[in-house]
Amino acid sequence: MSDTFLALDLGTKTGWAVSAHGRVAASGTQPFNTGRFDGGGMRYLRFRHWLDEVLVRVGGELAAVHFEEVRRHAATDAAHVYGGLLATLTAWCEERRIPYQGVPVGTWKRHIVGKGNASKDKVKAEVDRRGFAPSDDNEADAIAIALWVAETDGGAR
Question: What is the pTM of this model?
Fold first, then answer.
């Protein structure tokens, strides 16, 4: 069985991190903006296609996908995008029999920074301190989730 995990911070600019052998091996951001002439589902088709590409890049196997579980969005559009990406992700995982788990924001932030409601700046600073160089808070969040997975066995300890 694979020990490769994918961590995601879902959004229009999705942060991602791949963890293998207990360490973060790669990370980045992937935009899922819609174009002027795109239909409403194009963002989600692009996301599904991108997930397929990630799966190929990691050798066709993922032990699990972990994503930031958001319970409240301040903006309606952001909530709609999150919900659509989440539905696409969970269906994609189900089709491939890849386990998936939402990680509450407070859980991974408490693990990384020591405070469940830590600011984006504090999370990014801690991720930087640990030797990573995320381009923005989306990538920093994905790296932090991947670190939580690696350091707690996905919440088992």
Answer: 0.94
